[in-house]
DNA sequence: TTGCCTTATTTCGCAACCGTAACGGTGATG
DNA sequence: CATCACCGTTACGGTTGCGAAATAAGGCAA
């Protein structure tokens, strides 16, 4: 077990960011949906359904459903792969980029509060 | 908008911790449930249904349902208030403490990865 | 005691999500 | 061509969550 104060600070950071997210209006994403968003926007493309399912250790239908929801919100988009037409690529949108930058701000603010 | 590298680091921290949580078996808590857990364990007691609802800006029945789920998992417990028997206090459990310390470890490890 | 306020819970109808399994379309191999 | 493997989606049955409204029970004051 690690230093207690460090653990406490880590949890407080998480709590403040999370509470802000819970309390705000707008898209209320589940953990899985958020994890998919972050993977698509932070990792190198291409992102396929199968790849996302493997990386997050969830089932493929779960990924499909999450993509349905997220693309309805215009936070990301499906783009059929021209080379292998069985596959689709999941790509970013402007709206998604804006959304994630807001999340980043919230986390940064929470971090600032916990370091001072 | 703040420094781009800082934002990116904040999101990567969030992503790594979240992906670890999503990928693990065991309790799969929603954002609200997690927010309640963190509030109960990090803020000063007492914690009532009304108080939690106000603090997280969600409805009282939503809190009641979250407490049902969380107490079934033994991550926290209801304890009727002796003084005012309309109220209940939400209190901690050993299992909940252990669970949160695991979360803390995950966040710390993610933070370590992003600082090196 | 009566009436009213507060607290938490339950009920209702509805929507979202889950995993398993089956399905249709595409590529690859003979 | 025929077959087989692969990819994403859909169908299905079940679980869980939601908000609004109604309910149950305790406190409080006239």
Keywords:
5 helices, 2 strands, two-stranded antiparallel ribbon, Arc Repressor Mutant, subunit A, 116 residues, elongated, mainly alpha, homodimer, DNA-binding
The residue ranges of chain A in which pLDDT falls below 50 over 5 or more consecutive positions are none
SS elements, strand count of chain A: 2
Architecture per CATH nomenclature, i.e. the level-2 architecture of chain A: Orthogonal Bundle
Return the structural class of chain A. Answer: mainly alpha
Oligomer: homodimer
As a whole number of angstroms, the C-alpha radius of gyration of chain A is 16 Å
Summarize the largest interface: chains and residue counts: A-B, 40 and 40 residues
Share of residues in helices of chain A: 55-70%
Number of domains of chain A: 1
Principal-axes shape call of chain A? elongated
Could you describe the largest sheet of chain A, including whether it forms a barrel? 2 strands, antiparallel
* N-end to C-end Cα span of chain A: 24 Å
What is the CATH C-level name of chain A? Mainly Alpha
Percent in strands of chain A = 5-15%
The CATH H-level homologous superfamily of chain A: Winged helix-like DNA-binding domain superfamily/Winged helix DNA-binding domain
For the residues shown, what is the average pLDDT of chain A? 90
Run of helices and strands of chain A: HHHHEEH
Annotation field: number of helices of chain A: 5
Q: Could you say what the CATH topology of chain A is called?
A: Arc Repressor Mutant, subunit A
The strand order across the widest sheet of chain A is 1-2
């Amino acid at each position: 077990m690690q230093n207690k104060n460090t653990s406490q600070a880590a949890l407080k950071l998480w709590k403040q960011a999370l509470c802000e997210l819970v309390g705000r209006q707008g898209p209320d994403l589940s953990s899985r949906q958020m994890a998919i968003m972050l993977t698509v926007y932070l990792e190198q493309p291409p992102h396929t359904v199968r790849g996302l399912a493997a990386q997050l250790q969830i089932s493929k239908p779960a990924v499909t459903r999450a993509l349905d929801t997220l693309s309805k919100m215009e936070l990301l988009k499906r783009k059929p792969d021209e080379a292998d037409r069985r596959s689709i690529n999941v790509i970013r949108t402007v709206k998604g980029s804006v959304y994630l930058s807001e999340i980043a701000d919230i986390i940064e603010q929470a971090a600032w509060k916990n370091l001072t």
